[in-house]
Amino acid sequence: MKKFITYGAAGAVLAIIVLVVLAILNLGTLIKTATEEFGPKFTGTEVRLGSADISFLSGSGELNDFLLGNPKGFKTDEAFSVDTIKIKVKKESLTKDKIIIEDVVILSPHITYEKQGKTDNFKAIIANVKKAVASEDKQEPAKTEEGEKKPSKAIQINHLLVKNATVTVGGNLTKIFGDKGVSIPVPDIEMRDIGKEKRTTPAEAVQRILRELSQNVSGSVSGAAQEIGKKAQEALKRGAEAFKKGSDALKSGSEQGGNLMKDAKEGLEGMFN
């Protein structure tokens, strides 16, 4: 009997080791599955992740081909996409109530900013996340085996950097920038100590990051639109001056007046095209 008990205990230990090894080997798959399953519940949009390559032993790795879709009602398909996100996790925290992410670097993301009426795609996503946070707060926390209330999983991000981002526009903004849009650079975004002072759920962290991103993107687009408006006013002023000169020259019977009128017309046509 003792021998069977020993064999049984050894088998249980072996099974646990196998499960741990499988978890380590499939950590990337688990992250991909969790992202695509829980992401849409928070954002109300499509969330897709191509692959995740995270070392359980070092806690560092990469997330590849990440996409955040747009909510229903917007013409463009995506709000945010990026080929590579570098990440470093404090591995000791993976089994704790608070997961600590040491560093997140988002390299050269492509952002689509779409304006619809008084709102835009990022405001709509943030509103969806707010609803998810409010829903989380209303839910009764899970209980441990002893009957105690188990705290919800928290997250802390010590450093986040969004580098070399560019934004194109959609929706109503195409009236300003044209159907093909333009590639507008966004200043690098750097955030520190998210969730360090106050217990923060993943949804709350996402909400804070999206709000910061939205402010920077809308500021960059607004600046570019003002620059376009300024150049358009200057072009109109030059065109008006050229028309006046041409008109005055025509009145005096000068051939140069016809050339000036022609140049002014072509210049204005080129600006509107």
Largest sheet: 10 strands, mixed
Shape: globular
Number of helices: 6
Question: Uncertain regions: pLDDT < 50 for 5+ in a row?
Answer: 2-8, 16-26
How far apart the termini lie comes to: 90 Å
> What is the H/E order?
HHEEEEEEHEEHEEHH
Q: Can you give the mean pLDDT? A: 74
- How much of the polypeptide forms β-strand, as a percent range? 25-35%
Q: C-alpha Rg, in Å?
A: 28 Å
Tally of individual domains: 2
Structural class of the helices, strands and pairings? alpha+beta
Estimated helix fraction: 40-55%
According to DSSP, the number of beta strands is 10
Characterize the structure shown.
The protein is of the alpha+beta class. It has two domains: 2-137 and 150-221, no CATH class; 227-272. It contains six helices and ten strands. The chain has helices at 2-25, 27-43, 121-138, 174-177, 202-251, 255-272, and strands at 47-54, 60-69, 78-89, 98-107, 110-116, 119-120, 154-163, 165-171, 184-186, 189-194. Strands 1, 2, 3, 4, 5, 6, 7, 8, 9 and 10 form a ten-stranded mixed sheet that branches. Strand 5 (110-116) and strand 6 (119-120) form a beta hairpin. Helix 3 (121-138) runs antiparallel to helix 5 and helix 5 runs antiparallel to helix 6 (255-272). The radius of gyration is 28 Å and the shape is globular.
